[in-house]
Amino acid sequence: MQTIPPTMKALVLEKYGAPPIYVDVPVPRPGHSEILVKVIVSPINPADLSFMKGYYSSQKKIPVTLGSEGAGIVVDAGADPYAMSLIGKKVSILVEKGQHGCFAEYAVAEAIQAIPFPDNYSFEEGASGLVNPLSVVLMFKKVQEREDRAVVNNPAASALGRMLYRICKHNNIPVINIVRRKEQANLLRAEEGCEHILITDEPNFEEDLRNLSEKLDATISFDAVGGPLAGVILKNMPDGSTAYIYGNLSMKNSEASQFDLIFKKKKIKGFWLSTQLKRIDRKQLLELYAQIGPMYRDVLATKYIKKYPLFQIGDAVRFYLKHMSEGKILLSTHVNKVEEIPYAPQARL
Ligand SMILES: NC(=O)c1ccc[n+]([C@@H]2O[C@H](COP(=O)([O-])OP(=O)(O)OC[C@H]3O[C@@H](n4cnc5c(N)ncnc54)[C@H](OP(=O)(O)O)[C@@H]3O)[C@@H](O)[C@H]2O)c1
């Protein structure tokens, strides 16, 4: 077993809406069903930014160590046999409810919120391994259960949007990819090989969406932008279509017309990973984990562009906000300066 030091560096939030502080804190201890993970890399997710501002669904008691997701190695565990079985494994973790997040040298996660991945994969490959991959797998499960023949994906150039496109392509389900900028369309063509891409501010956007969704029979949309655009997309999908709203990037309420809801039998619903997870039992979840870990290199791969030292969180967030579609930003206590992360699109599908 690795030696665990008494204290560690961590990014701690002391007040919602205020910048976090980089401090020395005690290394946390895992509870009965928890694991202690030596964190190597952790991505900045939109949910982390919302959480810091105090906007996320669940506020935690403060002070709290930030960082909802990350990858590392399990160095200790509580007495629960499954938690103990993970010691020594490379894992991707989600720190959903706990106080000891991944923007630190060590984090504590529930063992059931850790996905083991192969030893020959890098920590970077597993860094965004839980929230987006699991959401995408469960979104795709909906497509299969409902027997939709094609999917509308907005915003398609996000990390999740790219995974959703790939899992559909892998299963021969066509995807209409929606982006807001031409550069994003170029990226998706070059890096993912997307065939159908529509840009929201182009004059023919609605007409093109209507024709394409009719032709492909795209009756389900997954949308993290929300706002009035969600209603525009639903309006231009076939009768009976359902829009699943899974994010609020526009910071505006999603809208749909009464005409579409009443006469066109269209629906607008929410999708939240936490709620979806309540519908599957532990055995099914562990089966999903066994499938997901090995897919971090292709179908469920995430593109990263830079790795920042943890203490440079301010610079990292500013860069991330300007370059979201280009790839994720990682934080780490294992680097002292900003590092570029090369991307190999040929390693994808
Ligand atoms: N409900 C759930 O269970 C669940 C689970 C996982 C993720 N999510 C949500 O999924 C979304 C995507 O996450 P991610 O990690 O894939 O994000 P990401 O990789 O950081 O990408 C964010 C994307 O959103 C685009 N964007 C931002 N604001 C926008 C706006 N107002 N209109 C149109 N596009 C906008 C960005 O485009 P630009 O480059 O043009 O800014 C970028 O392409 C987030 O909202 C996240 O909270 C929800």
Strand and helix order: EEEHEEHEEEHHEHEHEHEHEHEHHEHEE
Distance between the termini: 37 Å
Rg, nearest Å? 20 Å
CATH superfamily of the largest domain: Medium-chain alcohol dehydrogenases, catalytic domain
Strand content: 25-35%
Kindly state the percentage of residues in helix. Answer: 25-40%
Overall number of strands: 17
Oligomeric assembly: single chain
Secondary-structure-derived class: alpha/beta
Shape: globular
Kindly report the average pLDDT value: 95
Largest sheet: 8 strands, mixed
Short description:
With 349 residues, the protein is of the alpha/beta class. The chain has helices at 46-53, 81-85, 123-126, 131-146, 159-170, 182-192, 205-216, 227-235, 258-262, 273-277, 282-292, 313-322, and strands at residues 7-13, 21-26, 34-43, 64-65, 69-77, 90-94, 106-110, 114-116, 150-154, 175-179, 196-199, 218-223, 242-245, 267-270, 304-309, 328-332, 339-340.
Produce the secondary structure layout.
Blueprint: E1 7-13, E2 21-26, E3 34-43, H1 46-53, E4 64-65, E5 69-77, H2 81-85, E6 90-94, E7 106-110, E8 114-116, H3 123-126, H4 131-146, E9 150-154, H5 159-170, E10 175-179, H6 182-192, E11 196-199, H7 205-216, E12 218-223, H8 227-235, E13 242-245, H9 258-262, E14 267-270, H10 273-277, H11 282-292, E15 304-309, H12 313-322, E16 328-332, E17 339-340
Parallel strand pairs: 9-10, 9-12, 10-11, 12-13, 13-14, 15-16
Antiparallel strand pairs: 1-2, 1-4, 3-5, 3-7, 3-16, 5-6, 6-8, 15-17
Bound molecules: NADP nicotinamide-adenine-dinucleotide phosphate (NAP).
